[in-house]
Amino acid sequence: MVRKNLNLFAAMQIAFIWLFFLFSHARKAGATTHWMVTESGLIQPRIDSPFEIARPYDLLSFLKQDTHWEEIKNLYNELSKKQDFLDNLWSEIEKDTDLGIDVGKDENCMRAGPLNMIDWYHTPLEDGTIKNIPEKDFLLPKHFGASSEVPDCKKISSLTFSMFAFEHLNSMIERNNISIAPEYPSLEFLLPFTTSVDQMGHWLTGVLKRNTSSWLHYNLASLYWRIKGNAPKAIECCRRAIHYAPREYKDIAMLSLASIFYRARHYEDALIILNGAVDHDFRNPISHFVLANLYTYIGEYNASLVHYKICLKINSKMEIAKKHTYATLCHIHVKGRMKNMKWKIHKLREELNDYSLKESLWIKTQSEFLKTMKQIDGYDYKNVEKNSAKMSELTGLPIAKLKQSGDKYSLIKYFFDGTMFDGQILELASVPNLDAIYTLQRIVGYIQKHSNTPEILAHLNKGDKESKEDLFASITNIESGKSKEALSDKSMPKEKSKKDTQTAEQEKNHTEDAGDDLTEYETDIFLHPQSLTINKNREDFDTDPDWPSDEFCLFAAPNFPDKVEALYPVFLPLENKGIRRPLQSEIIAY
Predict the structure, then answer these.
(1) CA 445 to each of CA 89, 99, 349, 441: distance values in angstroms, whole numbers, following the listed order
(2) pLDDT tens-digit profile of 82-130?
(3) pTM of the shown model
(4) What are the structural domain ranges in the chain?
(5) What is the 3-state secondary structure (H, E, C) of 58-93?
(6) Backbone phi and psi for residue 580, each to the nearest 5 degrees, phi listed first
(7) Strands 43-47, 32-37: parallel, antiparallel or unpaired by DSSP?
């Protein structure tokens, strides 16, 4: 009996050990819910499987899970290939924007100097001395007096229409809407008359009042208004100068009128008048010089070189014409690089748009896939960085690294989509193409500086409108050396101490002095000051549809002054003036 009990006890021990071993292994195997085929063909258990869905009863989630998984991998491969292509294309654009490579090799470019310092709008203030007009015809006084009057040619004489003043041109028809920047006269121009522009205007007014048909002084009056930057008044003086000038002198007045239209960027009309001036006097070097500048600016390089050659043949000592000739030849040399860059920029913008669309789909698919898995407490599925890190862990692919390197192209696209870069300039075969290259140089510099800046990438990854607008503030703050605390501080401003005020002024001056800072006009983002608060729909006149009520009007303005109509000279109904008409019953009772 004892032996039988011992055998039973031993059997129970063996059974207990076997059950313990079984349950311990069963607990270890319990974490494996899926078996997956590896790349080598082995079937192995997958612990923490990505296909362990949160709601097993959700058939649609179950069916979409495998589709999302494959789509994430396929998009990863496509984006990897696109990044390689964009890397090569962007490196070529970086090389093309470096004009020093081409400019340093060309002799004409070296003689011309910096191309961005050439003033193609340079139009000399020609007073007629090139025609050897006698000094006595200018009627210069022995001394200049006051400077109170100005030569308003329209008030001095009336000229409704003139067959000689190009009245048919659109620029002439809309001359009151034309504006130009003030021109700065040289001492050589002022010294024969006076040292003060205002005294010159006063003197011209007196001369023109005595002789209202003097073309020479009308032309001087147009130069006076060009110095002042008043295009409509300058044009009126030019009309009279052209109308009264003899044929041998008409080209002087036409040159002044064409210069105004040229500086106002009315190129076609300026071209017509300049060609007319050359036809009147082919021996005038200044007309050829201004016409050559205009041809260069619009991209007609062959025609401009012809007129520069004629100008220097007439006046071989005109150094500015020589410099502009070298600059034109340099533009011809750089023209091939600009044409090649035009195709690359167009291709880059297409690829960036395609990359952005696929990346957005890729990020959205990752978020949708992670939502089907078992929920993690406190996990933010809108955080792109965390989603990329989680998918890298699940797939074994460097998804987070790919997303981080792709942020560079989001920053490039941000600059190209804004107003900092105008792609239409590249469509023109003219001098403004050079401005596009200099703008590209700035963009390349910003990309190299900020492509790995955490603050910039944080705004790009959020993707909402406010973050895009704050991106401009982040770049400008980083450029001016502000700290991270200043970037994240969005609280209402408090009373500042004297020390804080001085620090703020120093930071402001430092920002203004920074040469590379972006401007709000380049990014198309106008930021309001942080202290500005806008309260909407909080006042009575916003919330109350019947405002103002009769009680309010009686309380606010119980008595109206006598002859209240005299206080409101504008003809409006009384209701629009805020005055209530008296009721008929009130009138009868009165």
Answers:
(1) 16, 14, 18, 6
(2) 999 999 999 988 888 887 777 778 899 999 988 888 999 999 999 988 9
(3) 0.65
(4) 2-47, 133-281, 540-589
(5) CHHHHHHHHHHHHHHHHHHHHHHHHHHHHHHHHHHH
(6) -85, 130
(7) antiparallel
Residue 53's φ and ψ, nearest 5 degrees, are -80, 155
- Residue 327's pLDDT is 94
Which amino acid is it at 276? G
Q: What are phi and psi of 429, to 5 degrees?
A: -95, 70
Return phi, psi of residue 430, to 5°. Answer: -150, -175
Helix, coil or strand: residue 36: strand
pLDDT at 306: 96
| Ranges in the chain, pLDDT < 70 | 1-59, 61-62, 144-145, 187-188, 190-195, 374-378, 419-420, 423-429, 453-543, 554-590
CA distance 319 to 308: 11
Tokens 């071993």: give the residue: 21
Q: What is the pLDDT of residue 187?
A: 61
- Tokens for 204, please give them: 């011209």
How far is residue 356 CA from its own chain's centroid? 21
Taking the CB of residue 406, how many other CB atoms lie within 10 A of it? 22
Tens digits of residue pLDDT in 208-222: 999 999 999 999 999
- On average, the pLDDT of the chain sits at 76
DSSP, res 34: E
The label of the residue with tokens 């770049």 reads 475
Rounded distance, CA 417 to CA 178, Å?
31
Instruction: Identify the bridge partners of residue 53 per DSSP, sorted by sequence position.
Output: 373
How far CA 475 is from CA of 387, 448, 449, 464, 468, in Å, comes to: 26, 13, 10, 17, 11
Which tokens belong to 270?
A: 């300026």
List beta partners, residue 37: 43
Cβ-based neighbour number of residue 70 at 10 Å: 10
User: Of 344, 453, 456, which is closest to residue 97 (Cα–Cα)?
Assistant: 344
Six-digit token pair at 11? Answer: 């059997």
Q: Report how far Cα 204 is from the mean position of its chain's Cα atoms.
A: 43
| Helical residues (DSSP H) of 373-452, grouped into ranges | 384-395, 399-417, 432-450
414 is written with which tokens?
């941000």
